[in-house]
Amino acid sequence: MTNDDPLLRAFDAIGLRRRSLAAAVGLGAAGALSALGLAALSAWLITRAWQMPPVLYLSVAVTAVRALGISRALFRYLERLATHRLALDAMASARGRVYRSIACSGAAADRSELLARTADDVDDIGDAVVRGAVPMAVGAVTGVAAVAIMAVVSPLSAVVLAIALLISGVLAPRWAARGSAAVIADGAAARQRTGDAVTTALWHGPELVVARRRGTVLDGLREADASYARAVDTGRTRQAAAASMTPFAVLVSVVAAAVIAVDLASRLTGSLSDVSSTGGAVTPMLFGVLLLLPLSSFETTGPLTEAAIAWQTGRQAAVRLTTLMGDDDPPAASDPVFGDEPAAVTARGLRWGHDRPLGTVDLDVPAGGRLTIVGPSGVGKTTLALTLAGLLPPLAGSVSTVEGTTAYFGEEAHLFSTSLRENLRVARGDVSDDEIERALADVGLGDWAGGLPDGLDTELVGGGSALSGGQRRRILLARAIVHPARVVILDEPTEHVDSGYAAELLRRILDVDGLFGRDRTVVVVTHQNVPELGVSTGTVSLH
Ligand SMILES: Nc1ncnc2c1ncn2[C@@H]1O[C@H](COP(=O)(O)OP(=O)(O)OP(=O)(O)O)[C@@H](O)[C@H]1O
Fold first, then answer.
1. Could you name the CATH architecture of 6-325?
2. What pLDDT digit, counting tens, does each position of 223-242 carry?
3. Which end of the chain is more exposed for a tag (fewer CB within 10 A), N or C?
4. Residue of 111, 379, 392 best suited for mutating to test ligand 1, as the one with most atoms within 8 Å of CB
5. ipTM value greater than 0.90
6. Looking at ligand 1, which atom is closest to the CA of residue 384?
7. Is 95 helix (H, G, I), strand (E, B) or coil?
């Protein structure tokens, strides 16, 4: 783990607070040291009680055992709170940066897919804090403390314990992490090949049969599938071997401590049974400590195998996220302040397109006016709409949309896996329930929303996938209605809506007294036959 570690770089980039991390580690170490003290004191108490001294001799130790029992639980609880807070803050910061990078990337398309993919990566970063960084640091502190205590009791046992702790806390986790890295890397490559082969076999089946290449493709698929299984097997074998190292190390260190204790006792006194009465260097209490302390010190190294895997998974996620985020944190986008003034849209000699120009247009949409963009599929309607919205730079000419007046509502806009209310509130934070209900009724979803079990609180589980295509589009349209933008650019707002109702809906979108009113300017990309609707609008007809 050098500074080159992508996870450490990601921690730096998202501003993981070192002080809070140190506090979480301190609390975790205090809990673990309480457990260690508890084990040592319990061992002493059990063996001392066996000698049946006056009970007053034991009362301090009994009280201390209780105190350590309570402090162990208390510190662990506080450590959980501190660690989770740290991880949640880090994840919120990572999400903020990712969202800003995606928002500033300019590519309006594919954003929701990118968001879905990065959500898991952000979770993995949080996991690397909770299950990786903190347990590793706590394990290191506790391991050193256990060896130090043991060195006071018996230097030889301390050496054995140190070696066993290194095996359990360093060697085993490294093995497990390598296994996990192998599963992730080889497995991902094999899965990619399997996916490609399946797609080829399914999409090009007839051509492959004609070309007599179907067998080859299917053989390739079987081979890719087998190599995926092999990658998983190899990784799991390594992880299992690593997991078995801890019990083995515990066994070795306990047996070694016992042998050393017996040896010391017999050398000093001739027989263990005499030890209690001699008051010599090795008392039964010391013997108990020698046996129980190692057992307790492995409590903190046991989870380190899982910690190393969490770290490894976090590293892979960090690589993907840092590539996406870039080196510099993009400036926080200030919320656009949408004024109250109606705004016009004009374009002069506007040439639009991605790599190649798709057309040139001059247009004037007065404030409060309506414009439709029509034409066959693939002609460039969406690209023109994005350019008018200021989301794509013009290839030549100019467009006058004033920043902070315009909002584009794409065909594939994202519906979040949260309540219906929150899905509309993303458009405007202070929108009231009445306004939401009115907007839903305006797009013909009043009865549907009224019949939902929890009304506006109903969770749209899975976001858009919980709804039919038509419902999805209409919720997005309701979102546009409550949005404060003065210029609204709608891409295929009635797609997937029943044809009869779609015409009615489009007519009300384009009617100046309809859904958007006279003080908002509306540009609509549509496939529908606009003249049939009987509303007057400007039209850009692309061929
Ligand atoms: N991100 C992109 N990068 C490069 N070219 C693109 C991109 N998006 C679209 N295109 C190309 O631009 C052209 C116009 O696409 P556009 O989506 O604007 O058409 P459209 O008229 O809206 O089609 P549809 O009615 O099917 O939605 C197409 O040839 C398309 O392949």
1. Up-down Bundle (1.20)
2. 988 988 888 888 888 888 88
3. C
4. 379
5. yes
6. 18
7. helix
